[in-house]
Design a protein that fits this description.
heterodimer, A: about 775 residues, mainly alpha, two-stranded antiparallel ribbon, 32 helices, about 75% helix, elongated, B: about 140 residues, 2 strands
């Protein structure tokens, strides 16, 4: 089975999903999940092959004349991500099939969701930077559509736009970074680059490329200072948050950093920037999660913190940190997808996500309580969950971090303590705590809503108890991909009494103490937030956007003033200035003016006609005469074209001039009588502009005649028109074959202009508008 | 703007089909001799403008062929399609010309190619644009 076919099958499913959903409303979630789960099963069967050290690569010619391929690779890293994307994706579809029932227009929702899944899979399988970029942008677009799914709510639209603008900005930076990266290598294939990192280290483009790629990865993965779009994105329906904003899309940036690590791992700058931004994000996310009251917002900030931790772990670059990175990646995907789905379940059954309105739910939904508690155990890093192993490894990595160990350790310690606090708060305040009177008695969530979270949490428990299962099958090959030469650490729950265990114990103790004095903690957090974080990132972002819009409005009002005559003046003057400058730079060669007697008398006649007609236009006392005179000028020029065997131009010119006169005649009806309303001053101004423009055209033509460039482009066309394009009419061949893309642009403009004119004529303004 | 002239009416009635046929000829011959989609489209549009001048825009708008938005849309679609046909046939250069010759026994051979399809697109857009703009302005009276 080719990787390409897997991708295509998912994209086909994306387009079929709306129809499947429409006709099989009740079971659509289960049916839609079949293909993703089959793809998941395929990747499972590949584990033994990949863990034996093999790599699957595929390459398809895409745009071969610029050397662009669509290439895919399945190594340890992409296998890990592919399993996450398709496995969790399948479970999410089952969940969403039931969850979205109360929504309208769910058909397109499933289309977007599967489209996202396909793009995300394409992203992690790509081994060509351009291919990766294309999938990267597709995930941004589908994320935009999904966040803004409840588009009748203005907050959802704002959040979607914010996420799109930030990830879109990052995407542009990323593309620029990729282009820079390709300069020393001459290729976009990642494998070829990784094979030879020294080429990059010797290149001057390294620092700008690094900065641009980091901007791309950080915006996508909600790393400080770009973290604020993720909490905003909680406007999306819960299945979206569970899939995109916990396990997959926000991990795209992390994936890219891991993918490029072997290319950059000689650079201290790379590690310093990752460590600093990662540690900052880890702390900021955890801190902000404390005082939130909306369950999903709490989860969003803990996700920000987790993403920061992942970046930090890559940046720490030790055997422990690389192992911790992979384990924590899995751990976080499992518990966070579970928690988001459960948050959706709670909202569904109680109608609220606010902590203050929730309590005592263990009476109403015992199964959901158990699932949620296990996931929270994993998040707070308690045994026997996989989360415990993840956290132990992170501490191990921080303790052994070279150089910045104290800094990282302190940040990590507090982030973990906050995490324990937040987990405890969610567990007790939602499921025990106040006995709330619910307006409608909450019930146990349905089977479809519990399947996904239940399976994920069981997996997390199982892997916590038997961590060796993933050691050789997944971790070792992935390590080989992100950091060749790093050994796999044997995973176990019990490490004996050591510093790391002590840190864990203190973390949990402090977290519990914070929870016991919950009111004080929250008061303190709110106090600090109000005092020092008044300026919210999100608000700043929107005011920046508003400021920019205001600026463009002013700029547009200045440039697009709406006076046709001034537009023309601007064009004429700017063109004259630019071309006069160029003409002045070319050395003057005196032009041999031919003996006037050799020019046929005929030309004098035509030229006289043109000049007289032009004068008549200027002096005409009525608009109609002016129009006709202008037409006459055109016909004169057409005649000259004919004598130089430019028949095509002549025919077109005659047609256009005729139509212009007709058009003019029709328009004249509506215009006021021709009054001599231009003042003498403006007439003089116009005359000067006309003379400047006319004289530059004349000079240009004379100069062009005196120049003899080595290769005239017209020679190429006249030589190749017939052999290459089978046409004898060069003008036409240029229009429809050699330069057809230009022509296509022109007819598109023509079509838009026609529609614009139609709109202008048909839309009647009310008086006063 | 209606010219109340019987001469113009009769002339327009007979000239319209002639102009349309002429525009098609100009379109087809464009590849080897003067002509092409742009001029052809202008000619076709002019045929309807002439009709509009003789009978009034309201009357012209009811003619079966006068569907400017459809023509513009089809034209753009044909042009775009002509670029993609080549890609479908295994050549990866977008908009490269692709030709086939269909012999018509005894007379000549018909040369068809994607540039011709492209030119038809230009023809339709130009004709549609002319109809849309001119008839809209005429209707103002």
């Amino acid at each position: 089975m080719k990787l390409l076919y897997l991708l295509i099958s998912l994209y086909v499913l994306a387009f079929a999903a709306p129809f499947i959903n429409q006709y099989l409303r009740r079971f659509s979630g289960w049916i839609l999940s079949i293909i993703p789960l089959l793809v998941f099963a395929f990747f499972i069967t590949k584990i033994s092959y990949i863990s034996a050290g093999e790599i699957v690569t595929e390459k398809y010619a895409w745009i071969s004349f610029i050397g662009l391929n669509l290439s895919f690779t399945l190594d340890g890293l992409s296998l890990l991500f592919a399993l996450l994307v398709t496995g969790i994706g399948g479970l999410i579809l089952i969940y969403a099939g039931y969850y979205m029932r109360t929504y309208e227009k769910t058909s397109r929702f499933f289309g977007y969701l599967v489209f996202f899944m396909a793009s995300m899979l394409g992203l992690v399988l790509s081994s060509n930077l351009i291919g990766l970029f294309v999938f990267w942008e597709l995930t941004s677009i589908s994320s935009f559509l999904l966040i803004g799914f409840k588009h009748e709510k203005p907050e959802a639209r704002d959040a979607a736009l914010q996420a799109l603008l930030i990830t879109g900005l990052g995407g542009l930076a990323l593309l620029a970074g990729f282009v820079l990266l390709s300069i020393p290598y001459g290729t976009f294939e990642i494998a070829e680059m990784i094979a030879n990192p020294s080429l990059l280290s010797e290149s001057r483009i390294f620092i700008p490329a690094l900065a641009l790629i980091l901007i791309g990865a950080f915006t996508k993965s909600a790393i400080f200072p770009f973290h604020f779009w993720l909490p905003g994105a909680m406007q999306a329906p819960s299945p979206v948050s569970a899939f995109l904003h916990s396990a997959t899309m926000v991990k795209a940036g992390i994936f890219l950093l891991a993918r490029l690590n072997p290319l950059m791992d000689w650079s201290e700058l790379w590690f310093y920037s990752l460590s600093i931004f990662g540690a900052a994000t880890m702390f900021v996310g955890a801190w902000f999660s404390i005082a939130q009251t909306d369950i999903k917002k709490i989860l969003a900030y803990t996700t920000v913190s987790a993403l920061g931790t992942l970046v930090l772990l890559i940046g720490t670059n030790t055997t422990y940190s690389m192992n911790a990175f992979l384990i924590f990646l899995l751990v976080h995907a499992f518990y966070k997808a579970t928690l988001f789905m459960m948050a959706g379940n709670i909202e569904k059954k109680t109608g609220t996500r606010e902590m203050g309105f929730l309590g005592n739910l263990h009476v109403y939904m015992p199964v959901a309580t158990i699932i949620m508690l296990l996931a929270l155990l994993s998040m707070s890093g308690l045994p026997p969950m996989l989360g415990f192993i993840g956290k132990e490894l992170i501490y191990e990595a921080s303790v052994n971090a070279p150089g910045a160990a104290p800094f990282i350790l302190v940040m990590g310690f507090f982030a973990n303590t906050f995490m324990v606090f937040v987990s405890a708060r969610m567990a007790f305040d939602i499921f025990w705590g106040d006995k709330i009177r619910y307006s409608r008695k909450p019930t146990e969530p349905d089977v479809s809503l519990l399947t996904g979270p239940g399976l994920l949490v069981l997996l997390s428990l199982f892997l916590g108890l038997y961590p060796n299962v993933i050691e050789n099958s997944l971790v070792t090959p992935a390590l080989k991909a992100i950091s060749p030469g790093t050994e796999t650490i044997s995973l176990k729950i019990w490490h004996g009494f050591n510093l790391v265990l002590m840190l864990s114990a203190i973390t949990i103790l402090l977290g519990v103490i914070l929870f016991v004095y919950k009111d004080k903690t929250l008061q303190f957090a709110n106090f600090i937030n109000l005092k020092y974080f008044r300026a919210r990132f999100s608000k700043t972002f929107f005011s920046l956007i508003a400021g920019f819009l205001n600026f463009t409005k002013k700029k547009t009002a200045f440039i697009q003033h709406g006076y046709h005559r001034f537009y023309l003046m601007t064009i004429f003057l700017a063109a004259s200035a630019l071309v006069w400058y160029m003409i002045a730079r070319v050395p003057f060669t005196p032009v041999q003016i031919e003996d006037l007697r050799t020019i046929p008398l005929f030309y004098f006649g035509v030229t006289a006609l043109i000049v007289i007609a032009a004068m008549a236009t200027i002096l005409a006392k009525s608009r109609l005469i002016a129009f006709i005179s202008v037409g006459l000028v055109g016909f004169g020029i057409a005649i000259i074209f004919i004598t130089f065997s430019g028949v095509d131009l002549a025919i077109t010119m005659i047609m256009v001039e005729t139509l212009m006169v007709i058009l003019g005649a029709m328009v004249v009806y509506h215009l006021p009588k021709y009054l001599d309303f231009s003042e003498t001053r403006s007439r003089i101004r116009d005359a000067i502009i006309a003379i400047v423009f006319g004289s530059f055209m004349t000079t240009l033509v004379i100069k062009t005649g005196s120049l003899s460039p080595h290769d005239k482009i017209s020679d190429f066309f006249s030589l190749n028109s017939y052999p290459l394009a089978y046409g004898k009419n060069i003008v036409n061949v240029i229009l429809v074959d050699f330069r057809s893309l230009d022509t296509m642009g022109e007819i598109t403009v023509l079509a838009l202009a026609a529609i614009g004119i139609y709109a202008l004529l048909k839309v009647k303004l009310k008086p006063g508008e | 703007m209606i010219m109340r002239s019987e001469i113009l009416k009769i002339a327009a009635l007979h000239l319209k089909p002639l102009l349309l046929v002429l525009s098609l000829i100009v379109l087809y011959r464009g590849h080897n001799e003067p002509g092409g989609g742009f001029v052809g489209g202008l000619l076709a549009g002019t045929a309807f403008v002439l009709h509009g001048m003789a009978f009034g825009a309201e009357c012209t708008k009811k003619l079966p062929l006068v569907k400017p938005f459809l023509l513009i849309g089809l034209g753009l679609m044909f042009s775009l399609l002509s670029g993609f046909i080549v890609v479908l046939f295994g050549n990866d250069m977008f908009m490269q010309g692709l030709w086939i010759n269909i012999p018509i026994p005894g007379i000549t051979e018909l040369k068809l190619g994607t540039p011709l399809l492209f030119d038809i697109g230009v023809y339709l857009v130009v004709a549609g644009m002319l109809m849309l703009v001119m008839l809209s302005i005429m209707e103002e009276d």
